[in-house]
Write a structure and sequence with these properties.
This protein is of the alpha+beta class. The chain is built from nine helices and nine strands.
Amino acid sequence: MEIVHECHLNPLHYKKLVTQTQPFVDEDDNFLSYKIQHKKEYTGDEKEVRKQILNENLRQVIEHNQKNLDYKLTLNKFSDRTEDELAHLFGTRPSDPLQHGSIKFPHTEEEVNRLAKNLPSNYDMRSGGFVTPIKNQGRCGSCWAFSTAAAVEGALARTNGARGYDLSEQSIVDCAWGFSNHGCNGGIISSAYKYILKHGIALEKDYGLYLEENGYCKIRNMTTTYRIKGFIRVPRLNVNAMKVALHKYGPVSVAINASPLLHYSNGIYNNPKCNNAKANHAVTVVGYGVRNNTMYWVVKNSWGEDWGQDGYFLISAKNNTCHLLENAYYPLV
């Protein structure tokens, strides 16, 4: 039996591990603190495997944070797992480059540039009450459903005076299979919108709680579903078009490469290597801003409130970081 000393229960001890300037050498102490912080339990030989993975991630976190860049990394609930074990977090495939949405983007490039000149430098839909609380996709590869549901929730709230809509991601997971989606095995943003356009989406309180697994489709039993008039693709690689879409229409679903973001803590993420691999995760852009002359997007994730900045992250608007400007769609309600 392991003896837990009272000093190890101090959260300041754990926080110090990822902010210190010198490498941490007591791997047993680090491992014990991590287990307590994240309420982890291991059996048999798994303990040594998890300790090795965790301490390798810790070394990478400390090495990065020593560079004093615009963003910080940290250990979190994913830090004792391999990327293969976390594959369920990355359940999105990029949309067809020729898929322009059911409705054409309503502004020419000239109009976009003119509109952008009059937009505020900072815009965050959270402050307007248009964004529902952070959710957690859990062990299901359903990020594509969370991203699209969040965008529809925001669009409905803007249209109806900031009234909150808690829509059912489970209904999309269960019912959108005939639209090139595969439930917990992944899906496509544009295909999810095609499903919602045809069948609508129910409230979670009507459909049932999110299960973190595939279930039986019950959408035909719903007396009320919320529909969209269409979905629109934001012109690729166009920062001003994204700003206009966010300010005029609501949240935007995007596909990114999120693998390098697993240990994100805070700050404006900006890593050119993020574009070396294809997009694999769907998230929802809910605003933009400028900090220290750097423009960024405000992004809602679906990994729970205990990840990143209370479930959100900021990402640089320069250089199409992590492919964010390639597969971007918003719903029209």
